[in-house]
Design a protein that fits this description.
Strand 6, helix 7 and strand 7 form a beta-alpha-beta unit. It is built from 13 helices and nine strands. Strands 1, 2, 3, 4, 5, 6, 7, 8 and 9 form a nine-stranded mixed sheet that branches. The radius of gyration is 19 Å and the shape is globular. The chain starts with 8 loop residues before the first helix and ends in a 5-residue tail after the last helix. The protein has 359 residues and is α/β, with parallel strands linked by helices.
Length: 359
């Protein structure tokens, strides 16, 4: 089968080596209209931070961008693509488009993304609760004929659903599936995906990425090992596609590079267990699990607002605001873990990112 779009060998190698891919937020002004200057500044921030890509049109970009009264899906994808093209990063940099909805909607979004030069689609399974697993697999096959697919296991508390091991085993066999982001926030379900990929003949073609914001460091330091047809197969989660990494991104890039140096060792310092808890504590403040993640998007906005990248925390949905006590929790983790933020890096470059391209 000839695909309309595939990853280059350099992109595939980078994806398998492990990348920091932030889930791109949406910059709005006080009237809840797109703030183009700050939207572009965010993309510039992620590129300058050393990230290996951006994911646009995903949950952190707000699913409401697809609603007719906003009609922002194509504009925000286009802006990010323009900034990446203008920056010409000296490394492989993946433009990932969020794809969602029934098959025809997801196909339309994939065509828009491909025309804008996006490299892969992060295919959401949300909103399809009444679909059978086979129907969702067929939808995936259709999208994969248009562009490379990154699968997405989303936790049920924010709209996802539980899938069987057999589903992921069949999913891994779909040509042009290049990665799977695991974000069930559940060790058992994460294990289902890894085991399924290890049992697939395409296991070396699929990169595993964490979206488990509650377990980022441990995910990235763990080697999974299974016996498959009499052969020992090992697989690791190599990078992250994370809303958490939409903030303090420059430090996240440093963190992943440090983990790459240690994760092949037989012995890893127990200090990494402590660091995992510290990152998880920060995520609890940003993502608001205390209120069933109600403040997860405005929490990310709050950090970017404090750094000057966003003008405020507004979302397209006026009801989507930070939860009571969430701002105080963000202040707490700022004070508790000062080495995890990249405020100094942002302060040095903010003026450049907010400037017009010809300035």
């Amino acid at each position: 089968m000839t695909f309309r779009k595939t990853l280059t060998s350099e992109q595939s190698q980078a994806l398998h080596d492990g990348l920091v891919i932030p889930a791109h937020p949406l910059a709005l002004d006080a009237d809840r209209k797109l703030d183009e200057r700050r939207q572009r500044a965010l993309t510039r921030y992620y590129i300058a931070s050393g990230a290996g890509g951006v994911a646009v049109g995903v949950h952190s970009t707000q699913f409401e961008i697809r609603e007719p009264q906003h009609n922002l899906y194509e504009p925000v994808l286009r802006m990010a693509a323009q900034e990446v093209d203008r920056a010409k990063p000296d490394r492989p940099f993946l433009k990932v488009a969020g794809l969602c909805g029934p098959t025809e909607q997801a196909m339309r979004e994939a065509r828009i993304a491909a025309e804008l030069g996006y490299d892969a689609g992060l295919l959401s399974m949300g909103g399809l609760a009444d679909w059978s697993e086979e129907e969702i697999l067929e939808r995936t096959r259709r999208i994969a004929e248009t562009m490379p697919v990154i699968g997405f296991y989303l936790q049920p508390s924010v709209g996802g659903r539980i899938f069987t091991y057999e589903f992921w085993r069949a999913f891994a066999d779909i040509p042009n599936v290049v990665a799977i982001k695991m974000a069930p926030f559940n060790r058992y379900q994460t294990l289902d995906v890894v085991r399924a990929v290890c049992h697939s003949g395409r296991r070396d073609e699929i990169a595993l990425y964490t979206g488990n914001d509650d377990n980022i460091i441990i995910d990235l330091l763990t080697t999974y090992r299974f016996e498959v047809d009499g052969t020992t197969v090992e697989k690791s989660i190599v990078g992250g596609l994370l809303g958490h990494w939409a903030v303090w991104t420059e430090k996240a890039v440093r963190l992943l590079e440090e983990m790459k140096k240690v994760r092949g060792r037989n012995e890893i310092s127990k200090e990494w267990l402590t660091r995992n808890v510290q990152v998880t504590d920060c995520n609890a403040a940003f993502f608001d699990p205390a209120h069933r993640f109600a403040g997860c998007i405005p929490g990310i906005h709050e950090v970017l607002h404090r750094q000057g990248l966003l003008e405020g925390t507004w979302c397209l949905n006026p009801e989507e605001t930070m939860s009571p006590g969430q701002a105080e929790e963000i202040s707490r983790v700022y004070a508790q873990y000062p080495d995890l933020n990249d405020d100094d890096f942002v302060a040095r470059h903010l003026g450049d990112w907010l400037a017009e391209p010809d300035q």
